[in-house]
Structure formats: C-alpha cells, structure tokens
Design brief:
single chain, 401 residues, Rossmann fold, 15 helices
Length: 401
C-alpha cells in the first residue's frame, strides 16, 4: 500500500520554493497555479520556472509568485541543454529550501540542473507510447525517479511505477481540481447555444484534443446515437494536436458532435449537461471528472489509471477503447432519468470527500517543511541538496513510506 500525504493544516513553515513545469495548456498548469496561490497565501515565497507561454495562460505572477522563463517544451528537443542551463541559473540566483518539478519533462530538466535544494517531482501522467519514443520516456522515468528526493504520484499506479523504476521515497499526493466559478448562464441559455431542444440530451466532455483522450471512441459511439429519438447533442471542449483528424472523423461518421475548441466556461457547460463523458486510455485524477462530480452531473468514464479510485461507485465505468461498452452505458443512462439523478447525487456526495485545494497545499507545506529540516539527508542524491552519493542502482528499495 502506498503512503499518502495526509491532508493537514499549514504548520507555519514559510520558506522558499521553486515550482518547475514544462509546456502546459491544461491540468498541470492549473494545478501549479493553484499550488502557487495557496503557498503564497500561506506566507511561502514562490518562484515559478517554465515556458513564457505557460505564464501567459495561467498568470502565476497574478497568484503572487515570481516568474522566470525557462523554455521546457512538451517533448525532448536539442534545446533541452539550454533549458537545463537556464533553470540552473534561476535556481542558484536566489535562496531556495525546496524545488518541486511537475511532470516528467520538468522533472528531467530539474534533475539535470542539479538544484541546490531537495528536489520533489510530481508524476502527473503515465508513459503510454511504444517504440523508440516509449523507450526514451521509460529511461526518463528512471532518471527522474532516482534523481528526486521524493516522488509524488497523482494516483496509486503512478506511485507504484515511480517505486518500480527506482524512487527511494514515493508517496501518493492527489491533485485537487481548482474549484470552478459559479455558472454565469442558465442551463437553458447554454443549451440554446448548441441548438439543444428541451427534450434533447446534452452530453459534454472536456479535455485536450490528444490521442490519449480517445475522442475517436466517443465520436464513433455518438454516430450510433443519430437514430435515437431525440438524438443527443455531444460537445467536446478543448484544443490540441488531434483537432483535424477528429473533425474529419466526425464529418465522415456524421456524428452529432461539435468540437468547441478551448473554453473558459466549463461551469456553464456542466450546468446545461445531462451527462458527462471521459473516454481516455489513461488518467490520474482527471480534472474534468472531478468537476463533473462536484457539479452533480452523472459521469460515464473509462476504468483506467486513477479514475476508479477517484470516483468509486459514483460513476458508470467502462473499459477503455470499447465503443460498444461506452455506447451501452450512455444509452442506459439516457433511457433512465432516475438512474442519472441517482448517479449525480452519488457523484456530488463522493466529491465532497475529496481533498480540497487547501488540503493539497497544506500537505505540500508539511512535506516542504520536512525536507527543509533535513536538507543534507544522507539518502539524497547528488544535486538535491544531499552530500551522499546516489543509492546503488541495483539495490533493493521499497519506494514507500
């Protein structure tokens, strides 16, 4: 069983932390901004290092952090050497008690930069790629796992993976979705935007348009729903590299699906929704799944990664990549308003039990205080503030606390 960072109230520690992230347009950027804001409000000095475009989207400075641009792209490039040097300069230009990188890309650059303070890396995503790319990514996993003082996993499978590839201290640290603002529009106005009649269901999904999200499965299932009376309207909010192939697939299948692009009104979309869908091949604690359950919208999701432990029995779970199973689960709920209402009720009840943003920040403050109190821990690796050498690569390790 993986040890979990237990939610706790701030301990009064108010040191200096650097948060490092690579290019992000979604969950990781939102999480880092949430953490930065909470830390600053608690009296912690925060430096954020990441791409300039990420600062433009999430505005860490407005959250009270200082920002230094370090261009860490989403995929490895020859420019990584410049990123390592830039990050090293940023981390050594000021006193820091802890460096906390988010994601394997940022984690790799942080390890190579040999930070002058203990390094924490949060694992937000699993490696799904095969072939050469997958092999390189798995090598990165090992470097990051062995180069960090503490590996935090957003879901249990990520904690187990970090431990399996060499993390000396791997812990579960659930990522809380930032609280959505109240809807700005009534449900009827949202539905009218998409031409949804009062008797038609509106099905909503939100996420980056990336192959991992498997929107091709949702589109193929939606194509079958054209013959329903009335046919549901499906909207997918998000941007990303898969837009053109998904648009072509939607057109070819004549599926009742609209790709909305990037939206900032997810609360409004959920206010008008009858059903939410997550069709991904893998997720940790997907933000949209959290948002849907908090809003009391019944959810159909794939039983992958951290989703089952997140939702429990408060969502309809289906196998990944299975059009028939997704089709059947959605049809069953559309045909049974009482079942939808019950699932929505259970979802809201489940969501109330999750750690909040404040709990997440408080747990991190506890961890940072723990590490700052022992910056020269003999179990640390070079470059993370310790003086001892890295553990033998072949030595057994539990990866658990």
């Amino acid at each position: 069983m993986s040890a979990q960072i237990e939610p706790a109230r701030p301990t009064g520690w108010s040191g200096a932390v650097a948060l490092v992230l690579a290019s992000s347009t979604g969950g990781v950027g939102q999480h880092v901004r949430s953490v930065a804001r909470g830390l600053v409000e608690g009296g912690v000095t925060v430096l954020v290092c990441g791409p300039a475009a990420t600062q433009e989207q999430f505005d860490f400075v407005a959250a009270g952090a200082r920002f230094v641009p370090v261009e860490i792209p989403a995929s490895p490039t020859p420019a990584d050497a410049r990123a390592v040097l830039a990050l090293r300069r940023a981390l050594t230009a000021t006193h820091l008690d802890v460096v906390h990188a988010h994601g394997l890309r940022a984690g790799l650059v942080a390890v190579l930069a040999r930070p002058p303070a203990p390094l924490v890396v949060t694992w937000h995503n699993a490696v799904l790629a095969g072939g050469l790319r997958g092999g390189v990514s798995r090598l990165v996993e090992r470097v990051v796992a062995r180069g960090a003082r503490v590996a935090l996993g957003a879901s249990t499978d990520l904690v187990d993976r970090a431990a399996a590839v060499g993390a000396a201290d791997a812990r579960l640290a659930p990522v809380a979705a930032p609280t959505l603002p109240a809807p700005r529009r009534r449900a009827a106005a949202v539905r009218a935007e998409f031409g949804v009649r009062p008797d038609q269901p509106l099905i909503v999904s939100v996420g980056r348009l990336h192959p991992q999200k498997r929107y091709d499965v949702l589109i193929d299932a939606a194509a079958r729903w054209r013959t329903r009376t009335p046919p549901p309207v499906v909207v997918i909010a998000g941007s990303g590299p898969a837009y053109l192939p998904l648009a072509a697939r939607t057109s070819a299948a004549r599926a009742p699906v609209t790709l909305l692009g990037h939206r900032t009104d997810v609360a409004d979309l959920l206010a008008g929704a009858d059903l939410a869908v997550v069709s991904s091949d893998w997720e940790a604690r997907q933000l949209f799944a959290q948002e849907a359950l908090r809003a009391g919208v019944p959810l159909v999701a794939t039983a992958v990664g951290g989703l089952p432990e997140l939702v429990g029995d408060a969502a309809a779970l289906v196998p990944a990549g299975d059009v028939d199973a997704l089709d059947a689960a959605v049809r069953a709920l559309l045909d049974d308003p009482a079942a939808r209402a019950e699932l929505g009720r259970r979802g809201a009840e489940r969501a109330a039990s999750w750690p909040t943003e404040a709990d997440t920040v408080a747990a991190l403050v506890d961890l940072y205080g723990e590490l700052a109190a022992r910056p020269d821990d003999p179990t640390s690796v070079p470059g993370t503030g310790g003086s001892a050498s890295a553990p033998d690569a072949d030595a057994p390790r539990t990866g658990h606390r």
